[in-house]
Amino acid sequence: MSKKPQVFLESHNIKNLNFGFGQFNYHLIKGIASLNTEDLTIILNVKDTQKLKSEFGGNFKYRIYKSLSRYPLFRIKKKYDLWHSLNQNIKVEPFFDIPYVLTVHDVNFINEISDDMSHKRNVRFQEKLNRSHAITYISNYAKASTHKYFKIPNVPEFVIYNGNPITEVDIPKGYIPKTNTERLFFYFIGEFSERKNIHTLVEMLVNLPEYDLVLSGKNETEYGKTKLAETISKLKLENRVHITGKVSDTDKQYYLKNCTAFVFPSLREGFGIPPIEAMRFGKPVFMSNNTSLPEIGGNHAFYWDNYNPDDMAKVVKEGLQKFNTNNVELSKAYETHAKSFDWKKAASEYLEVYRTVLKNHQ
Fold first, then answer.
1. Residue 156 · residue 336 · CB < 8 Å
2. Fewer Cβ neighbours under 10 Å: the N or C end of the chain?
3. What local confidence, expressed as pLDDT, does residue 316 receive?
4. How would you classify the pairing of strands 157-159 and 134-137?
5. Comparing 313 with 48, which gets the higher pLDDT?
6. Can you say whether the dihedral through the CA atoms of 321, 324, 326, 330 is positive or negative?
7. With b meaning 16 or more CB within 10 Å and e meaning fewer, what string describes 272-285?
8. How far is CA 176 from CA 120, 247, 250, 251, in A?
């Protein structure tokens, strides 16, 4: 009986479930656990093995993540049959040149850190590309922007969309979150950062006096404390903008279910999960007409072409008017679209990538 190939998932970011990479790690692994992987031995590189063992049992083997492995001298020397680097920023690399799959979420660091290709971040990413035997991207936009700035080796490339993490609605009857408003409200969730562009929602709110705005996510950031806070104060909207901080899944589902619309003025997204989560609840979604967002939202979302408060408010008013004339049918269409992004399907596609690379390197 031949030995099963060992597939190593560099998945230590699973510890950060309040961030996109952590969510990606967790839901991909959960999707893989639901599928038949009897032909593979899959090893997870994680810090907290007990939590994952209690959830996934014997589906995986585990290697305890050590931060020292980020440094070249202490790289992992075991020769796995295949190594999957689950995001483009990971510093943990194999010591040896072994079959290697890289998943690219975005190359936003070109805009946010440096577009100098000799910058260490860009050099490190080019090195990851160079050692790859297959590259997966979470959107066509992520693929196109990677090709725009970097030299891509002649290896198989795949676009595999993320799944929607909300598969079942689970809100206890009568549940009310700690931060709430009795008025109609728009909802946003995401890290409070410059690229999320949240202050434009506050400026827009001046033109929509009947609505409040609920903002969730990591808010103790420089942007949250300065640009966003200053905009709220300047426009005297402290009573209409409700900041929740990080929220539980139950709180998030409550806000998504009860908001009038989901609003997402992000400047740069490799994929953009929150708009799809909102559509799962049949909600109209208003978001930026840039990067991956039109690809993900398709004709099921309303788009802002600029961030002038008057223009943004106009798009929202016209979009809500269109939605309200046919809300039952449109809500069903939104839900169907959201359900088309499925983690089990994504996991199946990643497994096929593994098998293809392994077959090519027998």
1. no
2. N
3. 98
4. parallel
5. 313
6. positive
7. bbbbbbbbbbbbbb
8. 47, 13, 10, 8
Sign, Cα dihedral of 84, 130, 90, 190: negative
In whole angstroms, give the CA distance from residue 133 to residue 157.
9
Pick from 20-24, 29-33, 232-236, 303-307: least confident: 20-24
Asked if 296 and 271 touch (Cβ cutoff 8 Å), the reply is: yes
Tokens at 298, concatenated: 């398709």
User: Torsions phi, psi of 84, nearest 5?
Assistant: -115, 115
Terminal Cα-to-Cα distance of the chain (whole angstroms): 16
Six-digit token pair at 200?
A: 């434009």
Q: Where are the alpha helices (DSSP H) in the chain?
A: 20-33, 49-56, 109-112, 120-130, 140-149, 199-205, 222-223, 229-234, 249-258, 273-280, 293-297, 309-325, 327-339, 343-360
- With tokens 């008057």, the residue in question is 310
Q: For the residues 71-82, what does the mean pLDDT come to? A: 95
Is pLDDT of 312 > 60?
yes
Provide the pLDDT for residue 258: 97
Per-residue exposure over 137-174, b if at least 16 CB sit within 10 Å of its own CB, e if not: bbbebbbebbeeebeeeebebbbbbbbbbbeeeebeee
Q: What is the pLDDT of residues 257-289, one digit of tens each?
A: 999 999 999 999 999 899 999 999 999 999 999
Which tokens hold the place of 178?
């700690």
pTM exceeds cut of 0.85: yes
The helix/strand/coil state of 274 is helix
Separation of alpha carbons 344 and 362, rounded Å: 27
One-letter identity of residue 184? L
Q: What's the pLDDT at 2?
A: 54
Rounded CA separation 252/256 (Å): 6
Distances, alpha carbon 126 to alpha carbons 63, 83, 102, 116, 153, in Å: 27, 17, 11, 12, 10
Token pair belonging to 226: 């300065």
User: How is the beta sheet containing 100-104 ordered, strand by strand?
Assistant: 61-64, 41-46, 6-10, 82-85, 100-104, 134-137, 157-159
